[in-house]
Amino acid sequence: MKGFHPSSSLPAPVGSFFICYTRGMLAQKIRENMKDAMRAKDQVRLDTLRGALAAFTNELVAKGKKPTEELDDKDAVAVLKRLAKQRKEAAEVYQTGGRAELAEKELNELKIIEQYLPQTASRDEIEKVARAKMTELGVTDASGVGKLTGAVMKEFAGRADGNDVKGVVQSLFS
Description:
Elements: E1 13-14, E2 17-18, H1 25-40, H2 43-62, H3 73-96, H4 100-114, H5 123-137, H6 145-156, H7 162-172
């Protein structure tokens, strides 16, 4: 089988790296897509994916790991969410500052980053879970908004935007 050492169940060394099929699949996919962007001469996609890979390396170093290791998909998604949030905020700042061309660049990068993020929950899904948690926790008035928001966020485990959850929970009490 290609990629595996014949005398053991360990992955075969490739250069100084080991092929690993259980960790870092998202980083591998981004690396492959970056190569495709190079071939297609798609500069925006290339720069965005290079930035994401650099952020993955920075995250590894911040966690005390070697930069040559692969980042877990869970951590990679967290880094991508952070990058997406940065792009949204930068686009807003550029828009209010009258720099539409820079805002458009940030939004284009945001679209590329969002392609690698898991599908987020819709407001309807959030509302269903919020109503269920509301009865489960016995929250009846606005004093339990924080408790309810926390329970809903925990239920979605990162699949829901915090601002959407906050908006839905507050709308249940207004």
